[in-house]
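Problem 12. The chain below contains 166 residues. Write out its predicted structure in token notation.
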Amino acid sequence: MRIAALCLAVAFGTGYDKATCPVDKKTFDVKDDTLRIGVNAGAVHFCGEACQKAFAKEPEKFLDRNIVGTCVIMKRKSAKVNSKYRFVVNNALVYVCCNECLDNFPKSPWKYCGQVADPVDRKAFQPAEDSPSSKVGAQTYYFSSKENKAAFDKEQAKYVIPFGAK
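Solution.
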């Protein structure tokens, strides 16, 4: 019976998606608690905290056009994998394609970033112009409630992933 169960597990896998860590190139199962950073419309997954921190220092070192995809504003153009064209919204990386988009994104990021995870309760929501928000350096954070913003402002270090300089 044990052999049959083992064969079923091998044949059908674990039920989890597989990912390859961009830093150490290990393949692993993606679970609910897997560390991740959003990149444009997708996500990059990490096998551990050390890899996530290494990635955050120099994300462009580990990204390519296939991962980043298209510009969040001009959807048919490829985003530039370059720190000059990077924004950070709720600990997710957002890349644009050109200087025009570079100028337009900061004027109304909520229009272009799509759903984001509130950094405090991690629940997805669509930010709006009047959403509570905070800035930490060049990074923008939106919140689903004033209470979450207050919690974030009280303990920013608990919620912020510090990304390398632009």
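Discussion. Confidence is low (pLDDT under 50) at residues 1-14. Students who got a different answer should revisit the alignment rule from Section 12.3.
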